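For practice. Any example?
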Amino acid sequence: MKSTLQQIPVSQLVLDPDNPRLYHLRAIHGSGPMTDSELQEVISNERRFVELLKSIKRRGVEDPISVKRMEDGRYLVHEGNRRTCVLRHLIASGAIAPGGVSYDTVSALVADESTTELEIKINKIIQQTGKKDWTPLGTAAAVHELHYEFHQGEEDIATDMQISKVKVRSFLKNYRMFMEYIKKTGDTNERRFTYFADAPKKVMNWVEESKTNKENYYEWINPTSGKAKIRAAAAGRSSLREFAKCIEDEEAMELLREDPTATVEDAYEVVKSNDIMKDMLFLSRVLPMAKSMRELNEVQLAKISASPKLKQHIKSLMSACDFILRDIEEMEASLTE
């Protein structure tokens, strides 16, 4: 994108109502803050604002912001809205800039007049992607806008955003489902997006299998309904990871559907009781361990022989195996009497 570096008075800067970092607000509420003063308030209340304020107060704005000249002679900020808000705050508070630093003007890359809206949109998204406060929902909303409002193909979006086509499709699908979830439940917490973006493929396939599955899923991840059963998206108890293991167990799924108080943790206990390998995960390592121990060479055996601690561990393992087999034999014998 063609641009020229200029010094722009801060008083001539206008905040961008189409700021990519605020996509999540538009995605959830239908529209983000539109007026300049509303934008100033929202951005000034962001978590990293104070951190940036301290930095700019000492050193000024070190990297140029990106703008485009408006018809009235002012400049719309495409990238650098937070830095602009910080400078405004410093000016309004009467802060005195240290030597060699100016709060009244800022270096800006001014876009060429021939620059299209799509070029600016893509440039804004590329510059924001990867920053700490750039949320997965914001990325998904940006991909959705490029595809449906600017009619860009999946391959073009993948190239511009430097992500795979598979990732583009995933963002489009997750965004669509999250918007549907909001419409169905009224839950506008953006954190719930992780239940779509981070869900195991098995879970999403199950959700899309039937209307009932989808309704159950929306209800089970929604804490505002009082019926939430899936407590976390990533890992741990009652998480999507545990839920994925419950899907193929009819008894576990029946418990979730029929018992209002049952959680995924409860259902997973059913899974473990029905599947010995899930209940005792260490059993999956027994055969590989036995094979490895049988294939020990002379050098490895010599190393074990030189370690009293390892020899004792192996003796403990052998004793445990003898103990288990003896108990099983006695149990089986008692059943035949």
Observations:
- Residues 135-197 form one domain.
